[in-house]
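Narrative summary of target 7.
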Amino acid sequence: QVQLVESGGGLVQAGDSLRLSCATSPRRNLGTYSLGWFRQAPGKGREFVAAIKWSDDTTLYGNSVKGRFTVSRDNAKNTVYLQMNNLKREDTAIYYCTARVGVVADYETRWYDWGQGTRVTVSS
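Modeled conformation, tokenized:
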């Protein structure tokens, strides 16, 4: 099991940028893992945002964030990041970090380790 702790959320204005971080523990070789981000807006279900396969940096993005968000990882820190640019009001949500053994996937049920989430609020 991987423990995940998100950070970096906050209140920003539309058009701003924000970078979320997800620190993993205990320290281990994440070579067989993929790390991902989902989000949940008020009153809605959880939506896939982005994911990265640790071993080869294969990435996958949700349609609503393509071209604006970038997922990356830091092997030395065992941390995954989500760089969010040109934020929109509809990006307002709680963002969750998640992990799974295997390739990237955009179905929530394929992920099994979850963080507590970090809140992002975008005002107009």
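The longest strand covers residues 93-101.
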